[in-house]
Specification:
The structure holds 2 protein chains of 2 kinds. By secondary structure, chain A is of the alpha+beta class. Chain A folds into 2 domains: 69 residues, no CATH class; 292 residues, 3-Layer(aba) Sandwich (Rossmann fold). Chain A has 9 helices and 19 strands. A 7-stranded mixed β-sheet of chain A has the order 12-15-16-11-17-18-19. Chain A has a 4-stranded antiparallel β-sheet with strand order 6-3-9-10, with no helix packed on it. In chain A, strand 9 and strand 10 form a beta hairpin. In chain A, helix 2 crosses helix 4 and helix 7 packs across helix 8. Chain B has 11 helices and 12 strands. Chain B is α/β, with parallel strands linked by helices. The chains are: A alpha+beta, B alpha/beta.
Chain lengths: 399, 344
């Protein structure tokens, strides 16, 4: 009897398409996929000269098994990959699927981590409504974002307001120290998600995000030994988290009391961001930045009503996907509000970012101050930016 | 150079900027050194229901600055909420100079709570040089290890495993126990100079490439353990059997004495040369049976010598007396026979 199709098994796996060039999500070094290092699995092969003495060694393999997994020097089968320069692990999907690097920028205390955690949580849960399916590219490497999501949305005792701790500037899970060229460098730990349109096209793309401390975006904080914000040189879009409640002009415009002392000037942080974008992309100083910018006006649950913006209905179409009209309406309202209250911020945006969209959002939403977190429009800045990047579905907005 | 630095979240730091910044530092501290100390200020996430005292990181670490190695003792503790209403932490770092290293145990410095700031108050400012650290020999005995694991030999077993790893180690203990005291007793099983051949910490610290290995005594619920698997440098203290040498030191096994006499000392050989200059003759170790010193001149410079001379058991002493008596009796008997034969 002839074997059926199910019984016929090819001896070798069919060749897989790989991307032409990979950019490491930790140090942004570009290299060909075949230059990726494998991570040894044998427990005796411990101590990598770059990634640290407690890390398994990284090696360029010369022996493979039939499935394409590398064989380490002690004969173990290895599938995990690492960057050729900083030797930080990255998901295998990065060599198979194109990736979009995105930067989330803002001054200290603007609410970047809260927004990131709420947005990811919302995108995971509201996939059908957003027209996108979002999942972890490698769950094992996402312990930190899982912990952040659990802290905000996990079951907690009543009447305990849930807040994330202030993001560390060094140490902890957010950063790793590597020894490159005899110099110790601090590199950030990225969050990498697989994003798939739920349309018939069903193309998958990776979204790479970072949870930087706001201190890293302050002028003078961009150092060669701590290049933790150099994703700005590679990002396809940026989200600037603007906290209107930190700025006295915004607060008076919204009828709120004066801000507590200690807030940093957010227009200066935006200028610094534009400067770094130009610097790390090799652009002239008078050249506009060529990446779309979404200004996410945070903590909207406190002020949206005063501007006549309703956060009750999320800006998505009933059939799925972004409601462009709803976004355009709030964008116009917010630009007018900025013209009135913070012209210096708007001037900075206009000078550096010809493509810009203002979106309100609230990471904690109706649940602010209580134990129950109900984000409002938290995913909107991310979904809009995703749709808006090159090849996306939105047309350009101008500030 | 004795100096200290405080790093916490403030509306405005000493060098400008907002958020995590320098709140205070010894006057005249070079900016580069202040940045190197600031970079040590991170407090790892703890398990969700950890108490404040369980979150505190006590650590001694060696940093490289301007081509030189400097020892830094740090206490990093949660510190309420900052001006933005988010959880804050206070990092207090103290540079340890060469004279202090000679006379103080690293973990004893961390245990001296009067030396460490509990909270920051006032405006950012430059501070006076900290007071000199005097003689601090450290803990004596391993009573907390005995209480936690039923046998103080576990401390020596854990230390031996940690020293053999060559890359530092995480020694996992129950989350509820006082990790700083366990760490102090662990360090005390080594002679004083050798305590400065490793960093010590009470939370999970990953050593970077080229840095001094750190021995961390960490809680079993430490989140960093969750994604790690079970590498060789993670040592579960509750699964350790007491070190044979430590146990035999207590019960006095003849074979063990013979072995120790033959070898002279037990030598741990890390994978690479340690960054310490002089290896002094080790002090008498204060616990775990009796450990005595060994001459330092024959110690290879890549090795950390741990001299172990075990106390002789009372049983072995009585055997020796009996043996001497028998030999003496035989000699007397032989002499008597010889004299009797000559007379005949």
């Amino acid at each position: 009897m002839l074997p059926t199709a199910a019984h016929r098994k090819a001896l070798f796996q069919p060749a897989r398409d790989l991307v032409r060039r990979v950019h490491c999500p930790s140090c942004w070094h570009g290299f060909a996929p075949q230059e990726s290092l494998f991570i040894a699995e044998d427990p005796r092969l411990l101590g990598d000269p770059v990634s640290g003495p407690t890390e398994p060694i990284r090696f360029l393999p010369s022996r493979f098994d039939l499935t394409g997994a590398a064989i380490d020097p002690d004969g173990a089968r290895c599938t995990r990959l690492a960057c050729a320069r900083c030797r930080q692990e990255f998901p295998r999907a990065l060599i198979e699927v194109p990736a979009t690097i995105a930067s989330v920028v803002g001054s200290p205390g603007a609410g970047k981590s809260h927004l990131l955690a709420s947005a990811i949580w919302s995108m995971r849960r509201q996939g059908a409504m957003l027209g996108l399916e979002v999942s972890d590219a490698e769950p094992r490497m996402h312990a930190r974002i899982h912990a952040m999501e659990n802290a905000l949305f996990g079951s907690q005792p009543e009447a305990v307001p849930q807040r994330l701790a202030k993001t560390e500037t060094a140490g902890g899970d957010g950063y790793s120290e590597v020894r490159v060229g005899g110099r110790t460098e601090t590199v950030p730990t990225p969050f990498i998600f697989a994003v798939r349109h739920d349309s018939a096209r069903a193309e998958e793309r990776l979204l790479v995000l970072y949870d930087n401390a706001g201190e890293h975006f302050l002028p003078g904080a961009d150092e060669a030994t701590r290049p933790v914000t150099r994703h700005l040189g590679r990002s396809e879009f940026a989200i600037f988290v603007l906290d209107p409640t930190q700025d006295d002009a915004f607060r008076s415009g919204l009828g709120l009391s004066a801000a507590a002392a200690g807030a940093s000037r957010q227009d200066v942080v935006l200028q610094e961001m534009a400067s770094r974008v130009r610097q790390h992309r090799g652009r002239r100083t008078d050249e506009p930045c060529d990446l779309p910018l979404v200004v996410a006006l945070a903590k909207a649950d406190l002020w949206a009503q005063a501007l006549g913006i309703s956060l009750e209905r999320e800006p998505y179409l009933p059939a799925g996907g972004v409601d462009r009209q709803a976004l355009a309406d709030v964008h116009r309202t917010l630009v007018r509000f900025c013209e009135r209250t913070a012209p210096e911020f708007l001037a900075t945006v206009r000078a550096a970012f010809p493509r810009c969209l203002f979106v309100p959002c609230s990471a904690l939403g109706r649940g602010a101050g209580s134990s129950r977190v109900e984000p409002q429009w938290a995913a909107a800045p991310f979904v809009a930016a995703w749709e808006w990047r090159q090849g996306g579905h939105l047309e350009d907005f101008v500030p | 150079m004795r100096a200290e630095l405080i790093h916490t979240s403030l509306p405005r730091g000493l060098d400008g900027g907002t958020g995590f910044s320098v709140a205070g530092r010894t006057g005249g501290m070079p900016r580069g050194l202040a940045e190197a100390l600031s970079a040590l200020s991170g407090l790892p996430e703890a398990w969700p229901d950890a108490r404040e005292d369980q979150r505190v990181l006590h650590a001694t670490r060696c940093i490289e600055w301007q081509g030189e190695s400097r020892w830094v003792a740090s206490v990093i503790r949660p510190s309420g909420v900052d001006h933005t209403g988010r959880g804050n932490r206070l990092a207090h770092h103290r540079l340890i100079d060469a004279q202090e290293i000679v006379r103080a145990c690293p973990v004893a410095i961390l245990q001296d709570s009067a030396r460490w700031m509990q909270a920051w108050s006032g405006t950012p400012r430059e501070m006076e040089s900290p007071s000199e650290i005097g003689a601090m020999p450290g803990a004596v005995g391993a009573t907390h290890w005995k209480r936690a694991f039923g046998d103080e030999g576990v401390a020596v077993a854990a230390l031996e495993a940690a020293m053999q790893s060559g890359v530092g180690a995480w020694i996992v203990v129950p989350s509820e126990v006082d990790r700083l005291t366990l760490l102090a007793e662990l360090a005390a099983t080594l002679p004083l100079p050798q305590r400065w051949t490793r960093g010590w910490a009470t939370r999970a610290l990953r050593p970077s490439a080229g840095s001094m290995p750190v021995i961390c005594v960490i809680g079993a619920r430490e989140p960093a353990l969750e994604t790690l698997g079970d590498p060789a440098w993670v040592i579960r203290a509750d699964s350790l059997r007491p070190a044979p040498r430590a146990t035999s030191a207590k019960i006095g096994v003849e074979a063990e004495i013979a072995e120790t006499r033959a070898s002279g000392r037990l030598t741990w050989q890390p994978e690479r040369r340690l960054g310490v200059g002089v290896v002094h003759a080790p002090d008498a170790a204060p616990s775990m049976g009796s450990m005595a010193s060994a001459p330092s001149e024959s110690v290879p410079d890549h090795a950390v010598p741990i001299a172990v001379t075990l106390e002789e058991a009372p049983a072995s002493r009585s055997w020796r007396v009996l043996w001497l008596a028998a030999v003496l009796g035989a000699v007397i008997l032989l002499g008597w026979f010889l004299l009797k034969g000559r007379g005949a």
